[in-house]
Amino acid sequence: MIIVMLGAPGTGKGTVGNLLSREFNIPHISSGEIFRSYIKKDEKLGKKIEEYVSVGALVPDELTIEILKARFEEDDTVNGFVLDGFPRTIKQAEYLDELLKKEDKKINVVVDLSLSDDEIVDRITKRRTCPNPDCREIYNLDFKRPKVDGICDRCGSKLIIREDDNEETIRKRLLNYHNISEGLINYYKEKDILYTVKLNNESNRVSSDVAIEIKDYLNKIKNV
Ligand code: ADP
Ligand code: ZN
To answer: What is the percentage of the chain residues whose pLDDT exceeds 90?
Structure first.
């Protein structure tokens, strides 16, 4: 099963991606998480990546592809994966297509989670993240509060606010998203594998409902 999560930052693609990866027992590959772990290791490559991530700019395609390539070569990817944050540009999408073609594999679905910019800013400023790399649960102070303030329900780690989750950086990331990544939506629409989920904060559709909707959709297309 190969699932690609699209959607601007803050649409819940990380959470939905996590749930789908547990459901189908395939790894959740998040380019943002991979970059943050490189930054933490603080080697030369990490420093380079940080220059972009810290200001909300996209890491250049060449570097992104080089790093993701190494991840795709790991053994746990044989039965597929949920991609979250990659591809982010047409060039990355073309790279992925080529890679899959070589292995005679195909993307099953590209999920587009759509939400207005103002609602996104509202969500992200209320986002709290579990920093434990084996957990990475994501919370929201409005509709997914941890049981104990500031503590992860699943693993007990102290929740953090991601460094790039401030309004200025968020607006920049949204601009990027609209400028560059929206072309991806058309790219996949033309390939007829796009599945759009319209969200709004009022209806407060939680990510678990969205994950169930996608799972049902995947079962349906499997049986056609
Ligand atoms: P969000 O989707 O909330 O912006 P991510 O965790 O997906 O956050 O990404 C964080 C940052 O990592 C992005 O703002 C960007 O700088 C960088 N990044 C992540 N994925 C990619 C990618 N595929 N190509 C280029 N840069 C990326
Ligand atoms: Zn946790």
So the answer is: 70
